Amino acid sequence: MTLPSESTMATLNETHDPALRSWVDAANAPGSDFPVQNLPFAVFRRRGTGESFRGGVAIGDQVLDLAAAARSGVFVGAAGAALEAAAGDKLNALMALGPASWSALRLALSRALRAGAPQETALRSCLVPQAQAEYDVPARIGDYTDFYTSVHHASNIGRLFRPDSPLTPNYKWVPIGYHGRSSSIVISGESFRRPMGQALPPGASEPVFGASRRLDIELELGIFIGSGNPRGEAIPMAEAESHVFGLCLLNDWSARDLQAWEYQPLGPFLAKNFATTVSPWVVTLEALAPYRVPFERPAGDPQPLPYLDSPANRGEGALDIQLQVELQTVGMRAAGLPGAAICRTSYRHAYWTIAQMVAHHTVNGCNLQPGDLFGSGTLSGPTEGEAAALIEMTQGGKKPIALPGGESRTWLEDGDTVTLRGWCEKAGATRIGFVTCAGTVAPAALS
Ligand code: CA
Q1: Angle at 63 (CA atoms; ends 184, 253), nearest 5 degrees
Q2: For 244-270, how does the pLDDT look when each residue is reduced to its tens digit (9 = 90+)?
Q3: What is the pLDDT of residues 135-175, one digit of tens each?
Q4: For the domain that residue 341 is a member of, what is the CATH number?
Q5: CA 298 to ligand 1 centroid distance, Å
Q6: Is residue 361 flagged as an active site residue?
Q7: What is the mean pLDDT of the chain?
Q8: Cα of 252 to ligand 1 centre, how many Å?
Q9: Do 344 and 396 sit in the same domain of this protein?
Q10: pTM of the entire predicted model
Q11: How remote is the CA of residue 364 from the centroid of ligand 1, in Å?
Q12: Which residues are placed with Cβ below 5 angstroms of ligand 1, an ion?
């Protein structure tokens, strides 16, 4: 049998070689999230300056300033053109170029940042310490779509909202999603106000208006779309991943009391659209190639319909990305206690893959555009410790979680900081990471 040619699945190449070392020493430190094998993209500037944001690539504890690198003329051809596209205040122009350009730039960066590279002198002057950098949302996000790809999350939530039929009949056939709000997507480190809204207290017949009392998190991955598709033309599975630039961490803050009252029949609205936090660094699909794993369906579950199926997706359509949620209260901060890990899971448990999300989103002719963002949906795994939202961890607010220092939480309180972490590691490959996606709850704007 001949497999169809699929340009979508990144293959290993010289940029993934675990033997590579960089002339930036910190990139070679064991456990670094930013070795020369990663090379994620962000937009940044020196903190506290009025400088323009511009593209940057993480290497060790430094940011390579791509605008400065472009001015130095170090790269030519496709890599040079991609470098120019990455010099602006958002990454949309780079994202629009497509995978051949992204790969050319990655290869050129990999070669130029390796130990002994002749470009070291030119590029050393383009480094900014990450400790001095601040970041912005990496793309001008036209549209944000939030999926629901963890069957474990869907089942856990379903049991709370609909005990009789936790998993809706469509779940195993359709990659469920809804259109979110892009204007309130914020960069890691920003705080947001606890939302106001309507909620129906337990046993009440009329709603009350006030600050949300059931504020929650959702551990997700963000998926940045690269090149788009013309309206009316679906992206088939075989091409789906060639339209994906890369991944970040995403926290889809959720007001569960507002959500429970408002979500029928059209889904969440004010419960979700007040803030969504993304991490600054976008790890490319190519960098994630060593961490691909097969997409598998449990025995007895329906196989995807043909438009959501491909040999490459079955073979290596899923990704093994380690994920963790940490919670730090005001009290813990005052006592010098670090954030406590309250969830540890992997993206490999998702029921639908990235390629399936892209193929499904466009099958009706919907056009995606460079810089569009997908949320993966809350990435809960199969066991209790892998629950990726407080509503699951606390069984709907009934079972508080204990924190170091003697505090406990069912829902978020003012001043709480939630930090998501993501990384990939396995024998025979270099560890790469996303670093963090953090946000802090500020008090509601009570009038
Ligand atoms: Ca979500």
Answers
A1: 25
A2: 999 999 999 999 999 999 998 999 999
A3: 999 999 999 999 999 999 999 988 887 888 889 999 999 99
A4: 3.90.850.10
A5: 24
A6: no
A7: 96
A8: 5
A9: yes
A10: 0.96
A11: 22
A12: 146, 218, 252
